[in-house]
Amino acid sequence: MDGARQFGAGLGAAATAPLDDLNLRREYIPTVLLQAEANPYDLRNLTRCATIGAEIARLNEALGPDTDEPPAPDGSYLSERAADATAEAALDAVRDATTDFIPGRGWIRRLSGAEQHSRHVQSAVQAGRMRRSFLKGVGMQRNCAPPAAPAWFRPRGGSQR
Fold first, then answer.
1. What distance separates the 2 farthest-apart alpha carbons in the chain?
2. What is the radius of gyration, based on Cα positions, of the chain?
């Protein structure tokens, strides 16, 4: 994405950041992350490599790619990456400017419940990452091919359960 489009796309979210602080707008937590938070080691209905891979795909959709996966080739040039970095810095400045005018912002976040929701989002993301790692370990133990195991893993022989 070029810097101008990135800036335009993120400007609305940066300008309305105080709505998050006042708990008038909440970040959505995907169901798969809430399920991971409730029981990260649940193996019900995950008896086959295909079902493990499907669950990992759901987690990847919510979390983004895992660290064992190679980055997607985007073919971007250095100038495009610089423009993206500049746009991100500008968005950070807008976000800071819109939240700095709130006196006692930390207290407001605590009293409005925004801080608690933010911690819940972070907890769900952490649980999702933990579940994805656990499932890839189970996939390796069951001799599954990726994506039901880490990208670098090669199953022994041809048997996959």
1. 64
2. 20
CB 129 within 8 A of CB 63: yes
Q: Name the residue with higher pLDDT: 18 or 51.
A: 51
The count of residues in the chain is 161
Query: Quick check: 119 and 36 in contact, CB under 8 A?
Result: no
Residues 6, 101: Cα–Cα separation, whole Å? 25
Would the pTM count as exceeding 0.85?
no
pLDDT digits 0-9 by tens, 22-65: 545 567 889 999 999 999 999 999 999 999 999 999 999 999 88
Provide the phi-psi class of 160: left if phi over 0, else alpha when psi is between -120 and 50, else beta. Answer: beta
> What single letter denotes the amino acid at residue 9?
A
How many whole angstroms separate alpha carbon 32 and alpha carbon 62?
7
Which tokens go with 122? 């972070």
- Give the closest residue to 58 by CA, choosing from 31, 38, 26, 28: 31
> One-letter amino acid identity for 158?
G
Our CA angle for 61, 63, 67, nearest 5°, is 110
Amino acid 119: pLDDT:
85
- Looking at residue 110, its amino acid is R
Short-list 128, 100, 106, 85, CA closest to 14: 100
